[in-house]
## 1
Amino acid sequence: PPAQSQNDWIGPPDKHSNLRPVIFYVPPEESPLERRLREARQEAQACNQRFWARHNQAFHQEKEEFIYSRLKAKGLQMRDETGQKATLSAEEMADFYKDFLSRNFRKHMQYNRDWYKRNFTITFLMGQVALARALRWLRWKKKNVEH
Amino acid sequence: GLFMWRLKSTGVRHIPCQFLHLCRAANDRLITFQYFNFLKRMYVTQCNKDLSQRAKPKSDPVVSPFHELQQLEQEKKVIHRISPIPSAHQPWPETSRRNELREVKSAAETGSVTAVRAESRDDRQWKEMKLRLDELPGILARLSKIKLTALVVSTASAGFAMAPVPFDLPCFLLASLGTGLASCAANSINQFFEVPFDSNMNRTKNRPLVRGQLSPLLAVCFAASCGIPGIALLTLGVNPLTGALGAFNIFLYTCCYTPMKRMSIANTWVGAVVGAIPPVMGWTAATGTLDAGALLLGGILYSWQFPHFNALSWGLREDYSRGGYCMMSVTHPGLCRRVALRHCLALIGLSAVAPVLDITTWTFPIISLPINLYISYLGFRFYRDADRSSSRKLFFCSLWHLPMLLLVMFTCKKSVLEKEDKGDLLGESHGRAVEIRLP
């Protein structure tokens, strides 16, 4: 993002986490409230990134392992004569999906709680910041009018 | 039309293009193309999001075909992402996305690929997080899942139309608007809650909050500015019962269904209730009371949700599993199919109850029997085969089955005058006829 921009910038989805990274703009006269908001957002972003990157990688890895073990049980190779990767049918994959979901249930529950809390906090802070900015602007307007 | 066929021929296994195919077939069924476009929009919207969205009504917007196409493009882009992402060295000029889409509309296959690549290239750039006012209507439309809410408004209108009272236009308009606003609010809050999950699912990763086109604060403010006037409108402009139902439905959708999606498969049943409430609201808006007819109409929509959703969720098991959503199709696949079949059959039963409650004449169960049997047949095929093609067939059937059923119901509606006559003949036994509001 250009150096003179006064806004945050959001990028393309991350390869592992599918989340879009945000580069936060730090204004020169950042109030403590605004700093709290920015830090909360950065922390949430880092947390989300860590969780999803790890989770998605685990998913793909376990999926590969599952396919490999199933193919081996059937006596097939990972790649057939044309070099294409062998895949299992949707019904066979369904077993894996069910298993994966139940194994990660606890992890998701914890993440949900965490995410909801963060989301509310960030939004609430955003509200406070918006209010503070609006009051500041009104005061500035009043000062200008008086002069 | 030609464009749509091209989509199919690219070999992209793409649900909307099958749907469009169905769309053309359905034209023969004397359903207006407009209405079908409407459904297509609804479906494309559903595709774009997490399937389990149930929405509340919204007044019907005039969505330009452009917007539709844009949605369609986003869908295609979604599918294309799975295949290798094209390199950034594209020889196309840096035209705006909209121009690309305009070209695509009249162009052939290559044109469509151009648009897709342009969009995915566009998507891979860094964007400034500034709210652009000219984009705002589109952003808010996507935030409120306007197409889906529009479809739900039509179910509420069906509820209103089926109520055995003279048609009151102002009331109808207020009810539709109120439920539409309530729906926008509910959908916005839902998207607000689900940002990281939506990012990870192919269907939903182009939502405004995911792309940073809108701040969460703005989303919440929008939801409040739709929801509060919406419910107020329903409570004060229509009647308190409808307002209460609207508020309850928002609560059910945002605070029960949305979190439950990640906790237990029971979310599907809660979601079915969310979908069943709008026609009940339409009915109570017209009559002011919650009587058997309202519940029957709600029951029909409740049952319909299951074949519709279960069939659709069958193809999304991978995304659900990775995203951590607890859906029957992933955890209890047998139950998923059984429930879908069960409710297809229930629709036959419910249709037969309609004349008993004096909502329709006896012609309704007879005329609706073919379509109910057909969806039950597809439900049975889905139950037995449990594969992608049967799930898709069932899903697409559900899309035209519901509007058709409601249409037939409306045409078979027991006319108010008929009931009045009966009332005169049979005395007090048809009390409802006597209470009819005179225009």
## 2
Amino acid sequence: MDRKQCCVKLSVQPSRGLMDEKFIVLVQNVWPGFQLTVHALHQCEDGHSWEAFGHYAADATGTVNVSEDPSLGGTYSGVEPMGLLWSLRPVPGSKPGLRMRKMNVQTPMEVTISVYQGHQTEGFVDQVPLAGVLVERWYMAPGVRRIPITEGGLTATLFLPPGPGPFPGLLDLWGGGGKLVEYRASLLASHGIASLALDYLTPKITIETRKMVGIEYFETAYRVLQQHPQVFSSRIAMLGLSFGTSITLKMAAYSEVVKLRCAVCVSGSHVQPVDGSVEQILGYFHKNGGKTRFSEENEAIWRDLLLPIPTDSSLKVDVGRLQCPLLLVVGEDDQNWPAYESAMDMKEMMERAGNSHLLTILSYPNAGHLIEPPYTPHARSSFFRTVNTREKMMALWGGETVAHSRAQEDAWRKTLVFLRENLF
Amino acid sequence: MSQAALPILSVFPSRALVDEKFKVLVENLPPGCPVTIHSLHHSEDQDYWEAYGHYISDDRGKVSVSDDLSFGGTYTGKEPMGLLWSMRPVLGSRKGLRLRKMNVCTPMLMDISVYSRHDGFRDQAPLASVLIERWYMAPGVRRIDIRERGVRGTLFIPPGPGPFPGLLDMWGGGGGLLEYRSALLASHGYVSLALEYFSPGQLQTADLEFNYFETAFNIVKDHPQVMPHRVGIFGLSLGSIVTMALAVESRIVRPRCCVCISGNHCFPPGRTLAGITGEVDMNYDKVRVDENNYHIWRDVGLAIMKEPSSKLDMGKINCPILLVNGHDDQNWPTVESAEDIAEMMRAAGKEHLLTRLEYPDTGHLIEPPFSPHFRATNFIVNLTKEKVIMLWGGQTKPHSDAQEDSWRRILTFLQQHLYCSPSPKARL
């Protein structure tokens, strides 16, 4: 009889997948009823290690299928095909306040999936697993072209799908943390949409002149997309998260230049001084900084800065002016922005204006602020450096991991359907 | 503002191993719309290979290659993987081409496109196009050059701690070092050594003793990540002959199991591998050519088989052996050989060790699934150094079915004999 269970077969299909695709993890050739732990390990670009694991018992044929069998414990439980990704968390002993974000989208996220004997909860790195495989998770499909854009003073990256085109276009805006974050745009290009990831808070021009960009910056970005020979100029959308929503709604409602085919706003609000520049809008939030609350763990809760939703029409984007379909994605446990309350107010405004047929709201109980592409690990809080104050604080984003992860999956799928219906 | 819907083409998965299936889907077409789905590959040798199928969208404007029928092109009917296995060189290409990936560290890239119309579909730009990757190596598989104890080859090691079962992997009379099958086997959990045993056209002069192969086998067996009692041998064509010889004659190596594709048992005992060419030499007059002047060698094999002294005594084999052959093999009488092997093993009471797979209208070159079918390709005859076109045989559709079916069964056979069974009676 063998000393230990040997010849365990572990497979993950596909071994190379896009970030929003599912995989099937299969363990075979173990004793029937054998207790094992399926473990995922990832070292992110910052060098931190993340792990997730589930406890399983093999069936009568000596097989564990993570897509069909329940995890009996670990970082996730129940039948969770993708639990090994969305429940990833920093390994014990890591710095607090970490958030996983891929900055280089030209290489895949590498995850080592392993099988360990028994139901284990710690010390994985000190043991030899029974088997291990490497899985690649890509933000870019083969053939997607990555093009840095600097014309017009922009700091941006354009992702073009493979093929002759023309393709619908999309302007992709992240939030108050700034930087040029490419992974959502590259993923959208992998779905056939020419997407421009735009840095509008920390672009080269702001670093050099110390001045925030004006509205023309976004109109320039729109024009760059519109005039691209492979972009369908009348089919351009805008997608904004958090502060990116503020910009998106402003452009959609007021810009003479930007004519959107549709807009997607995630975890944001329409509350802002209507005639304000980017700088002034940020200033308005900062002015209300006194309303910041703190959790028991000293995490900053900023949702109250915009509450109560003003009745003064000069302090919110007049969404009654919108002429394109709008998808709002909000988490009801968003501790950073009052996204749910804002969505309800926008609904009311649009009903009064008679354009509410354009509005779709996806509202997720127990989901937080950072509604990212599916299987992104949930960060309930993390260190955040606001662009204007340069302070580094722990921000509470909110959300309960299981519900938040489900929300990410559902929202992404529905966002893709929304974009497909309106752009293709 | 234009209202025309933009067609959406998707292939899932866009990155896959070469033996994995994909789903090709076109959406957002008008209903009942004739389209052509086309695949294009630019090979390492700079040739272009293509395949295509003619489809008609359903009432929801969809075409699903996995579910719908192709009405014409390089394949017809419901063929989920037809865009790969029916590939052939584009019009105007050089003759006798064979598609073989030499650099397995990079994927094969294919353009999959959808065009309007059936006839004359090439006259316009495609409606949409995507790029897919087909890999021989799974992520984490390690590739190691082997130049030790006089042996030349490449070792592929699966990811993970191991230990793993091992394989010695040998191709045929074309010579050289072909890594792709070993890379694929490692992607399925086997430490696999792709062995180079002579250069193309140099079989006569290759300094090949039996010992070379035994040493190669031991390199696998002795590897720290290999389970020494679970090493098998995998051969095709001439490689199969070597495989059987090792299993029957060697006093040094004991393979756990053997896979022999398009092989035969004509290895005169006591001879070297180069000595085999002597047999071919003597019977070279039996080589025929067909109406295209392609070489047919099967009669040479039939003549050799008539001599009992030129055959291995397969009754002496002591491990499970899987024989995979095609009925339309024009290069060697492999089915007849399998019959003879079965006879010998039956007589020696070893029938239970033998598994035979034989496929109708299937030729000599039984490759991993979805590889294009090569009915006749360029070959350098070792004996005469002539460049000829060798007729391998097979009809494309049945041959491709055979490749797909046999690979699945080969993997099952290897798993059964090289990976532990969980039953308490694992060790015999």
## 3
Amino acid sequence: MVLQSLKNCLWLPCVLRTPKACFWSTPSGGLIIQSVSNDVYQNLAVEDWIHDHMDLEKQQVLFLWRNSPAVVIGRHQNPWQECNLRLLRQKNIKLARRRSGGGTVYHDLGNINLTFFTTRKKYERMENLKLVVKALKALRPQLDVHVTDRYDILLDRQYKISGTAAKLGRTSAYHHCTLLCNADKFVLSSVLKSPFKGLKSNATPSVPALVKNLFEEDPSLTSEMLLDAIAKEYAVQHQIDHHITLINPADETLLPGISDKTKELQTWEWVYGKTPKFSISTCLNMVYKDSVLDVKVNMDVKHGRIEVCNIDLPEQWLPPVLYSELVKSLTGSKFCPNEITTLVTTLLRLCPQDDELHSRWSLLCENMIRLI
Amino acid sequence: VCIHRVRSCSSIRFIKSKYVCVFDKSALKFSHQQRLFRTSAVSCGQIVQFKLSDIGEGITEVTVKEWYIKEGDSVSQFDSICEVQSDKASVTITSRYDGIIRKLHYSIDDIAFVGKPLVDIEIDASKGVASEEDVVETPPMSHEEHTHQEIKGHKTLATPAVRRLAMENNIKLSEVVGTGKDNRILKEDILNYLAKQTGAILPPSPKAEIVPPQRRAEAVPAAPKDKARKIPVPVSRPIAFAGKDKTEPVTGFQKAMVKTMSAALKIPHFGYSDEIDLTQLVQLREELKPLAEIRGVKLSFMPFFIKAASLGLLQYPILNASLDENCQNVAYKASHNIGVAMDTEQGLIVPNVKNVQVCSVFDIAVELNRLQSLGSAGQLGTNDLTGGTFTLSNIGTIGGTYAKPVILPPEVAIGALGKIQVLPRFNSKGEVFKAQIMNVSWSADHRIIDGATMARFSNLWKSYLENPASMLLDLK
């Protein structure tokens, strides 16, 4: 296996001026590239860049990448429904929304990602997955791996080791899939479980599956070995040299416009704001003094912002003026604990400095914020 | 070169009335318009049904997940129309035509079928379609009014492509003289208008003659025949600026600020500023920084400022008080919960350090570290953001010397700290030395705080910081 830095490519400068042109024009039908970054946003931005700017007519591309801990949701999914956002924040695990469809996955360095770039016409997921299985079997013939008709790869007929998603544009398309080598299954199962109750939405739901790492089946396997085996099989099938070119997703001269794409993927508007409209209908059980209050809360959230908000409090529990100020502040606000905390604490400054009132207000707000 | 005579108003009105009887302006809906255009005698935009093309892999149906356009929007070829999903694949559908969207055949979450119509697009006339398609009654587009101007009660005639060209160049159609049939504004008319504005050289076109209409107040200079052959003198007029105003609702952090500051308006503020010589404190911090680092804590100047403020508040407790709504009672707060203004990505937040009166400088530093990391991660809780009694704002880390901070209700005082500058000062011997100078600007509620109190508090605070050893005497 030869790892060649892209800077050594002689033909690069003359090709860079025409973005839509055949980019790293190797004299063959394929190119294998690997990212040097473990940042999920940077790597997703590379996918966007290749999809938007490369001419895949003459050569197809295989992109290999790994990420530091992150949860990646599909284009039309609801993060509140798919994962435990509070746990993600506590553990500093990133949340990203990709542009392809499909369900939610957990990435860490024990998981490898493969993206197959082709023209729209040559889009063929089954072929790609069969390539992966062939590579795995070439590496370890005793592995019982096969592709299902849901485009999953199963180990021993029952454990999911790979999930698939795809994005189709006007002229180009890509199919990417994961492959579990040695990921942290404990973290995976805890972050992919949402504590949210009473959420109604038409967002694409994920289908939970039993997973297993390839490492558990064969402890001699490493991510590097798997990446290499897959690259080798791709090279054979595309009749190209088996060498992997490294790319740096932060290199603006190599990938003009990449930093804008990276930034866009991190904005709140993309990650949370692209959530299809949903409603929540739940009940807060607040312990106040010696009794338990059942407070029904109903909210409609569109573009990640609270469109309609209803909190069913006992009459006069809060002064009506304050209650209406609360509802008014929440309406239009992002469905985000940070923003709601800021708003409710501000409102507390403006109401009479009555200890009883303050404790009721704090109780209500804390319970509400815990929802999100 | 032909010269077009301007049709009289009455004939245009005649055409208009013919439309009026076919459809009523007030009842105009897009779907109705589609039908009426087909049945009216006048030629109109050709409606094309854009069908959902093959996705591949034998897929026959998809779910519509997001529309990027709405009815009435104009689209160009290759613009994204919608996002559909099928079996883990998200597909961006792009337009094959230039035109205006007339109908969306599906709503969000509907199932769409391959081969069936997805949207109806009214094809642009100027793209080579034989009949001249005029849109007399232009439906309201998502852009401003000047695509659809009235000259003294008459609508300007222009095709959608011409309207778009005018809009992109920020041109009012009412200012362009149309040379087409029925005073229609053609693409050449827009280009000629632009050429006049920018002094650009344009190749002469057969319809270049522009005759000003009689009803116009100011005469547009008629272009004589030979002007097309002469090189026009560049007119130094500003190039049309294509930027657009943007309106956004006030939400989130901004909304919080609006509420707080509107309430602060009720407080009569007075200001008091002074200069602090931090030379000794700078030295002290240099000595203590590594000790704090060993304990895993970043030590800035703020813990000193905060502790000194608390010591001052012990002597002047009215600055740590609150005035009730009716200005009847002053509530003296026992805890010194000193707020620290923090600038985050989303905006201004003010968490506070609780009970500074019983904290050491190191304790305060630890707490500040915690609040700062939570603040930048957007994870501050309600407890950290409520209960403040006095606030300091270290705006000097960004810059500035003197400021006029706004008191955060229900508090009665606030201090803004400028940047530390190295400035020449005289010492007691009359010699010039290098001093580390910082300015502080206090604001206080003049209903219960008077200038003398503020000044004395400031002097005490200043003395603690200028001579840090004196803090030792009063530390509790």
## 4
Amino acid sequence: MYVFRDGEACVSRGGGSEPERGPRGASLAVGVSAPRTMFRYQSLEDCPLDEDAFQTLGEEDEDIDQFNDDTFGAGAIDDDWQEAHERLAELEDKPATARELEDGAVSDEMDLLGHHEENLAERLSKLVIENELEDPAIMQAVQTQPPMQQPGGLNSSIWDGSAVLRRIRGPLLTQEMPSVSVLEYAMPQRPLQGQEDERDLSERALPRRSSSPVIGSPPVRAVPIGTPPKQAAVPNFNQQILCPKPVHIRAPMQQRYPSPYGERMSPNQLCNVPNSSLLGHPFPPSVTPVFTHLQRAQLLGGAQAGRMSPSQFARVSGLVGSPLTSMNPKLLQGRVGQMMSPASGFRAFFGAPPPSAPPPSQQQQHPPCPGSHLQNLRPHPQMFRPDTTHLHPQHRRLLHQRQQQNRNQHRSLNGSAGDRAGHRSSQQEQLRKDPYANLMLQREKDWVSKIQMMQLQSTDPYLDDFYYQNYFQKLEKVSAAEEMHGDGPKKERTKLITPQVAKLEHAYKPVQFEGSLGKLTVSSVNNPRKMIDAVVTSRSEDDETKEKQVRDKRRQTLVTIEKTYSLLLDVEDYERRYLLSLEGERPALMEERKQKICDMYDNLRGKTPGQERPSDDHFVQIMCIRKGKRMVARILPFLSMEQAADILMATARNLPFLIKKDAQDEVLLCLLRPFSLVLYHLPSGTVTSLLQQLANLPQSVTAPAPANLHLAAVLQNKFGLSLLYLVLSRGEELQNSNAGTELMQDNQWTELMSMTTRELLRIPEAALAKPVSTPSNLLSLFSRYVDQQKLNVLETKLQLVQGIR
Amino acid sequence: MLSFEFGLCINCNQCLIFSVTTNADLTSLPEKHLVLLRDGRTLIGYLRSIDQFANLVLHQTVERIHVGKKYGDIPRGIFVVRGENVVLLGEIDLEKESDTPLQQVSIEEILEEQRVEQQAKQESEKLKVQALKERGLSIPRADTLDEY
């Protein structure tokens, strides 16, 4: 039973075909394959399906498991995968034709693989929580904006291309016998029905299973590539049937035979192969048009096995599986590109003028010309503006540069607006250069980007990604500083705009079953169950040995350090929080901060609230630990002057001990900076006391010991010496300043100074530590208290003279 | 030689965003990418596909072995890399690609160089382990640390 292309049936076995065709035919006048396919159903399937049956079939679609391999995938093929591949190609026709039927209502998700992809996308989106999808940042990353709707149309044209490819083979095969149905029903076709095209027609198992003899290749769609999916397609269709001019295509093709698999052939060359094989063996008229599918498969298979099998296979088996299968359309696209190379011939093929019907607005980028198909691949400058704000600036720049280059290239090649050939050839060249470009659909890329962006969602970026935030803050500061000096930003540094999500409180509700008594004893990460009853038992004091005591004490100290550190981190964070907070919250924040600072101090000095702090013990313990020292250095800026001075005193008092303990770590030096800052603000009295502490003299002035061990130890240590210098320097500053007289009058100070100088003189030079820095005013300081001779000695010893004095 | 086109990333996933979105321009020349794998191999090829696990499909891949100032390329064809083995991925600036102080040598030569280098490393490692053993210390082998 053969049916002519234009829908006229010569024979039909199915009952009631005529009346059904009527209404259908009218509505499907635009549809290329619709009447025909529906027809063939009836005829070939030999089951009188009437309209209702079709509809019910459609309704059953939802129940059909789309991922069932047997139904839709590899299992559905009784025979060669190549045939199935061809069938699947028809599948991809459907959306294109369906789109023709619906008045340009291109769904967003409509894609190369038609509804399969759509359903996949639906599933994917269902997998994702809705909220996250709506996040603007995520959506930004995804380039499926309304202007990007064109990909839907774009893809249809891409798909048209491949369909065209197939169809090209049709007439090629049948050039000798135009009257024969080799053209069509190479594949079992799916019925195209008017409004039911909405649904995924490829879901219908039935049609695909039906194995009619596969004849040649699927009928060629007369719709030129890039035609708007509208009625306009039909006239071409008819024309084409009547006068297929495959010759044009054939002519420029080289006679190339399938090369062994090992050889590298781009998919572009690929298309030469099948065509040439087909072309190279023109069928004698006597050959019966109805090939068994085996023969056809051989034909195609022989031509393509080397090349296409992997990709086709992937398509076939994984059609509904993953977006990667869309690799194939890309290959085909590449092939089509090659097909275009005999540009003139191609044009002649679709010799009919482009459909007169002006494309609807949304299809402006589908200028009806074969080459335009390729043009559509390249995003139209005005339509396609990918959202690149989140790209690294260099990246973005390069991207735009390339776009510009391409545009310029094309424009220059184009010359006049209508010079499509040149335009096409440049694009073909581009495609030829990289036929695998865009193996991944934009949609897929967006999908991956979306996932990545979702992973970056964070309610509190400072919590989740502290170092990243800090790093970029620093960079920004640096660039801002540079900007102030320089003309402009030297280097753009753009952060990735990560999605900001409002805090969602998901109250975890453990699984409950209706009507059951009690709850399930299920333990999950959200709902952990207590497995072990761990009880803290405090040891009795008697049992402890000395060692244990020491260990415990150390542990105590460590715990204290940790607690204080947390407080410190919080306090340091307050500034940022302050900026982010609302006006009303700020006083509360300030209070919190103050409280925390007090707590920190208490922790440092040992908690004896409201009393004299008798012992430095606690503090010293903390200072013995490296982390403690660093922590003190960080805390100092937050403390009040009094508290800071206190800390300083305590440090000075116990310096030899600390020095001894610090021998391994050498971390004391980190304290110098904050100490110096504190010193700067200290009054003279405090400075004196400080020096006293350093020198370890009792409060009352008594006869100094012959050798001051304390001071000696201090002098021999880098930190100690540096600290001493700082103190002395500060004293000198004070003396020089207005308030200096006070210091001068202070006997203690003089006493201390003389002592210090004595010690400095006494100590052998070798034993003297190397200070971090030698303040310049020390010499003048010493000059007040020692005579010239000693001054000279001091000078040389301490290397006080720096350059020209 | 290379210009890594991604900024500092929170997750390693972030870097994929950039390389994927570059291809927005459909007719641009393909970008070569360089992938560093966990086992230290360097692959260079055209990145064709990517997914959320950083599984990569590389086309016309070349494995580049670096020894000292020399390097050699071994053509490998199509690579599908499982995401967990990817350390980093970056786009190669084609203009800068040729601008390198490194010298390309033949495959045999580079393999030979690599073998020599490996040998030298192994010997020094052996000596180290021996010395430590004499002192009663032992350093766990690097591959067991890899998981952490």
